[in-house]
Amino acid sequence: MSETMSKIKIRKAVFPAAGLGTRFLPATKAIPKEMLPVVDKPIIQYGVEEAVAAGCEQIIIVTGRGKTVIEDHFDISFELEHQLESRGKHDLLALARQISNLGSIAYIRQKEAMGLGHAVLMARDLVGDEPFAVILPDDVIDATRPCLQQMIEVFDDVQSSILATQVVEGPAISAYGVLDCQPTAKNPRVMEVKNLVEKPKPASAPSKNAIIGRYILTPRIFDVLEKTPLGAGNELQLTDAIRNLLQYEKVYGYRFEGKRYDAGDKLGFLQATVQFALERGDLGPEFRNWLKQLPL
Ligand code: UTP
After folding, report:
1. φ and ψ of 256, to 5 deg
2. Cα 231 from chain centroid?
3. Which protein residue's CA is at the shortest distance from atom 22 of ligand 1?
4. 55 neighbors 8 (Cβ within 8 angstroms)
C-alpha cells in the first residue's frame, strides 16, 4: 500500500434517517423513529456519538418530511439553556450543551423514501471524493470500543469498503443481507467478500455473517449507485450497489466486537432499553432489583 493511500482518513459519517419507520407505528406516525429514546437518549444520538468518538468531523444526516425535530435536537436551545442556567441546574445544562457541541452537522433531504441506496446517494455532494462511513441510526450498538472505530482501524489496513457483520444463527438469517465470504489470514474477523445475498432462505444462506447498519464505503459507490437499477420494493438498494461495487474493488466484511440492537423494531428496542438501563450507574441497580422481583 502506498504512503498516500495509507493517509486516507474517514472524516465524514452519513446517517440515512428519511425512512418511514412503519415497523414502529403508531409511535412513528408523527415522531421520527430516530428520535425514540432508548432510556433517555434518542437513538440517533447514540450513532452520532459513536461517529464522533471514532474521529468523524462531519456528520451528514439525510432527512425527509416530518424529521425537522432531529435538526432541533442537535441545535442550541437558547430558552432551555437559559432556564436551566437561571435555575442553577448545571448538570442538565452541561447535558444540553454537549448535544449541540457534537461537531459539524449538515442536513440534506431525501424527498421521497426511495430506499437506503437512494438516501446514501443524496449525500454525494456533501461527501465528495473520499471514503466515508454510513451509520443506520436504528442499529444501536453496545461496545467497549465504538463499532465504527473498530472498522476504521480495519480500513487503515485494507483501504477498501467494509461492511459490519454479526453472526446470526438459524432462520433469523432470512431477515438480513448475508455475506458469501472468506476469512482473511491476518484477522479472522475480517472477511473478503465474494458476494452478497439479500434475505436468503436459511438453507441457501452462504454464511452466518449478516450485514448490520455500519458501513465504510469508497466514493466509487456513488457512480455505482447511479447505475444500479431499482430493486426489491422498487427501491434503490444499497446491497445491490455494493454487489456491483465488487466488480471494481475489493470489499471486506468485519465481525465487530459488541452487541447490536435493532431499535427500529419493537422487540429490539425493548431489549436495547433494558440492556442500556441496566448498564447505567444511576438507574441500573434499582432497575435490576425491580426486574428480579417480576413474576417471570
Ligand atoms: P429501514 O428499512 O430500517 O427503515 O431502513 P424504515 O424504512 O424507516 O423502517 P420500516 O422498515 O418502515 O420500519 C434503514 C435506514 O435507512 C433509512 C431509514 O431511515 C433507516 O435509518 N432510509 C430508508 C432512508 O433514509 N431512506 C429510505 O428511503 C429508506
Report:
1. -75, 160
2. 22
3. 19
4. no
Give the residue, by CA position, lying nearest to ligand 1 atom 18. 19
Does 76 reside within a domain?
A: yes
**CA gap 151, 161 in Å, rounded:** 10
For position 88, which CATH number holds? 3.90.550.10
Q: Is there a contact between 229 and 243 (Cβ–Cβ < 8 Å)?
A: no
Say which DSSP state 31 is in: S
The reply to whether 262 falls in a domain is yes
Q: How far is the CA of 21 from the centre of ligand 1 (A)?
A: 6
Q: Output helix, strand, coil percentages for the chain, rounded to the nearest 5.
A: 40, 25, 35
Interval between CA 296 and ligand 1 midpoint (Å) = 34
Is the backbone peptide bond immediately before 26 cis, with ω within 30 degrees of 0?
A: yes
181-193: pLDDT as tens digits: 999 999 999 999 9
- Ligand 1 mean position, distance from CA 19 (Å): 4
Q: Tell me the per-residue pLDDT of 194-245, one tens digit each, with 9 for 90 and over.
A: 999 999 999 999 999 999 999 999 999 999 999 999 998 899 999 999 999 9
pLDDT in tens, 99-109: 888 878 999 99
Residue at 287 is within a domain:
yes
Q: Which atom of ligand 1 is the closest one to the Cα of 16?
A: 25
pLDDT in tens, 94-141: 888 888 888 789 999 999 999 999 999 999 999 999 999 999 999 999
Cell (9 digits) for 91: 448538570
- Does residue 5 form part of some domain? no
Q: Which atom of ligand 1 is nearest to the CA of 62?
A: 25
Q: What's the total number of domains in the chain?
A: 1
Q: Separation of 276 CA from ligand 1 center, angstroms?
A: 23
